[in-house]
From TrEMBL:
GO molecular function: heme binding; iron ion binding; monooxygenase activity; oxidoreductase activity, acting on paired donors, with incorporation or reduction of molecular oxygen
A matching Pfam family: p450
Official protein name in the record: Cytochrome P450
Residues annotated to bind heme: 450
Keywords: Heme, Iron, Membrane, Metal-binding, Monooxygenase, Oxidoreductase, Transmembrane, Transmembrane helix
Residues passing through the membrane, by range: 20-37
Cofactor(s) listed: heme
Superkingdom as given in the UniProt entry: Eukaryota
Native source species: Amborella trichopoda
Species lineage: Eukaryota, Viridiplantae, Streptophyta, Embryophyta, Tracheophyta
Family from the record: Belongs to the cytochrome P450 family.
Length: 513
């Protein structure tokens, strides 16, 4: 039996403790029965675990790294027993293709954790809703009315306004350290809330509110990624031993209150006259929708939650990682600035129309997403029927993790995989975000691929280009970069990036545009 490593469970460490001989015999019997059943079922190989608890005590908080380490010993198709739940970890492009392409329909469902049920209105959103007519409706609504290229083009003025507001705020703080991720979070938040219901969620100078809001969203994504005893030992769910459901419940109340207030005001006003924002469309669809697949108020609030949580943390984290890597390698930042200057010039500001000309900057963003995919294990899949993957059986209801973080760092497929080298995407320009290449698929693949790729790509590239064009950047004196990662369902920088902006444009009026 493998000894426990750093446990993921809240301290103190979860241990079996002292018990009488009868209980030990019973636990040993359970373990023996499981081992026999595993051989009969022909499950993928994996580490031995504790009786009843399985591999739970041996998991590290950074699950993506822990799974990668275990897969080196047990193979790219590995099974784990997490309490009563069987989990399978996929860590190779070939196996990922089997799951996400060859058996896409079978694996298109989710094993919804208790934390997601709490925050996502019982799993009524795009992320957690089972594959079927309702999921197709929700996704079609979001893509058609919010995330397609035509709609995104029409909302460019909104994105530009918020980004320029961030530039002005950073200009006021020039010469002093700024929290890059927090500024970009508030920018993304205001862009998204304006798209959803036509209103900012906070001013750039309302810093306390911005930091608090980011903390709340960060807590949600962290809790969604944390293994929960309530999911893995259902008999113990009423006890909520880790307090995850209680914490998520508190977060849910705060966000639900915001959504209720906005919706009630909108309905009181009889709809925002002349407005074509997403909320107006959803409320109209609820009243006129197909009775066979009705859109309820619960679905509307769940979609708003998806957009607010999913579109803020992921975007701001990616921009923060990009700036951190360029500060770590100033020659990359200099080359990116030269490209931006060459395309934009110094007598105007960056516009989204310039983005297609930023070849090197685009490679930087792709390299960031290779090393730090927003969702390192994607959202776990769950087969709706027994399936064979890699010659092994994967039973119905298994929680399937695709370790895209590990795949995109695999030395078998990537030269110098741990080095930040944007030029690899210039030498091999085949990689994109379509999910067709299973060596590089940071947004997932198949039916459940991220619906917001186009918006995320625009927001990240535009933000990074604007920061590089508007300012020179350096670290505070004596500070060293800490590039450690912090795992949640969304991967983030463990230590926030503090960097000093200095204006680099000769015409001060450009900062006021």
């Amino acid at each position: 039996m493998e000894p426990p490593a750093r446990p993921w469970l809240a301290q103190p460490r979860l241990e079996i403790g002292h018990t009488n001989a009868l209980v030990l015999v019973a636990l040993t019997l359970i373990a023996t029965i499981y081992a026999i059943a595993k051989r009969k079922q022909r499950l993928p190989p994996g580490p031995r675990g504790w009786p009843l608890l399985g591999n739970l005590p041996s998991l590290d908080p950074n699950l993506h790294e822990c799974f990668a380490s275990l897969s080196k010993r047990h193979g790219p198709l590995m099974s784990l027993r997490l309490g009563t739940k069987l989990a399978v970890v996929i860590s190779s492009p070939e196996l990922a293709r089997e799951v996400l392409k060859d058996h896409d329909v079978t694996f298109a469902n989710r094993d919804v954790p208790a934390a997601a049920l709490r925050i996502a209105y019982g799993g009524s959103d795009i992320v957690w809703t089972p594959h079927g007519p309702l999921w197709r409706l929700l996704r079609k609504v979001c893509v058609r009315e919010l995330l397609n290229s035509t709609i995104l083009d029409s909302l460019y003025t909104l994105r530009r306004r918020q980004t320029r507001a961030t530039v002005r705020e950073m200009l006021h703080k020039a010469g002093t350290p700024v929290n890059v991720g927090a500024h970009m979070f508030l920018t993304a938040l205001n862009i998204i809330t304006n798209m959803l219901w036509g209103k900012d969620s906070g001013d750039q100078d309302d810093w306390a509110k911005a930091v608090e809001f980011r903390r709340l969203v960060g807590e949600i994504t962290e809790l969604l990624g944390r293994p929960n005893v309530s999911d893995l030992l259902p008999l113990l769910r009423p006890l909520d031993l880790q307090g995850i459901e209680k914490k998520m419940g508190g977060l849910f109340v705060r966000f639900d209150g915001i959504f209720n207030e906005i919706i009630e005001q909108r309905m009181k006003d009889g709809g925002k006259e002349g407005s074509h924002d997403f909320l107006n469309y959803l409320l109209d669809l609820k009243d006129k929708g197909d009775p066979k697949t009705p859109l309820t108020m619960t679905h509307i609030k769940a979609l708003l939650m998806d957009m607010v949580v999913g579109g803020t943390d992921t975007t701001s984290n990616t921009v923060e990682w990009a700036m951190a890597h360029m500060l770590e390698k100033p020659e990359i930042m200099k080359r990116a600035q030269e490209e931006v200057d060459r395309v934009v010039g110094t007598s105007t500001t960056v516009e989204e129309s310039h983005l297609s000309h930023f070849v090197y900057l685009d490679a930087i963003v792709k390299e960031v997403l290779r090393l730090h995919p927003a969702l390192p294990l994607l959202v776990p899949h769950c087969p709706s029927a027994p399936c064979t993957v890699g010659g092994y059986n994967v039973p119905t209801g298994t929680r399937v993790f695709i370790n895209v973080w590990s795949i995109q760092r695999d030395p078998a497929h990537w030269d110098r995989p741990l080095e930040f080298d944007p030029e690899r995407f210039l030498r091999e320009p085949k990689w994109d975000f379509s999910g067709r290449d299973f060596e590089y698929f940071p947004f997932g693949s198949g039916r459940r691929i991220c619906a917001g790729i186009a918006m995320a790509n625009r927001m990240v590239n535009y933000s990074v280009a604007t920061l590089l064009h508007s300012f020179e950047w350096c670290l505070p004196e004596g500070e060293k970069l800490d590039m450690a990662e912090k795992f949640g369902i969304v991967l983030k920088k463990a230590v926030p990036l503090l960097a000093i902006p200095e204006p680099r444009l000769s015409d001060p009026a450009l900062y006021e545009e």
